[in-house]
Predict the structure.
Amino acid sequence: MARVTTALVVIAFSVVFPSMVLATEYVVGDDLGWDGTANYQAWADDHAFHVGDVLSVYDSGNDALTLSVAGTYYFLCGYHCDTLQQTFFIVVG
């Protein structure tokens, strides 16, 4: 009986909160990370972002942003950033 109840809770949670179940964590710049040599707009254009996804800038785990609502997110850097790092945007569907 406990297994059936647990299974029903998991199924209900997946239906009610699908963005949490299907969320993906992205490291900005993929293997290049945040080092100034990547074209971050090109990186963003290659991904399809969804509500609940997480963007991480560094591997520390303290530099992450959960995309909590649909819309356009703009990222600007004005301190210690190379030209390609200065601006990029993503659209969350």
